[in-house]
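Notebook, bench 3.
Goal today: get a predicted structure for Large ribosomal subunit protein bL21 from Paeniglutamicibacter cryotolerans so we can plan the truncation constructs. The sequence was checked against the plasmid map this morning, with no discrepancies at the termini. Length recorded as 106 residues. Pasting the sequence as submitted so the record is complete.
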Amino acid sequence: MSTHVVYAIVRAGGRQEKVSVGDLVTLDRIQVAAGSTIELPALLLVDGETVTSAADELAKVKVTAEVVENLRGPKIVIQKYKNKTGYKKRMGFRASLTKVKVTSIA
């Protein structure tokens, strides 16, 4: 039983993500409109039994993705407190994110 698996490791948003065709991936905010396409740089390509990691061969690989939506992540609450001094500080943070769908690995 042999399955032909194709996936790539791409650099996206300062991190590395494992993607295959049809995957939805959430990245740090990319300044593009929803519905447009972007190209992600590949760091590794696995095509069945073949693993490609050479830089000159990876330059030919194109991983394209379609921007589904721009959104914001969940709110993270940051609290600081020091005992016996009356010091309390409370802040919140929401990350700006972009959700993309991988359309092709070629």
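The two ends are 25 Å apart (CA to CA). Residues 55-58 form the longest helix (4 residues).
Flagging this for group meeting.
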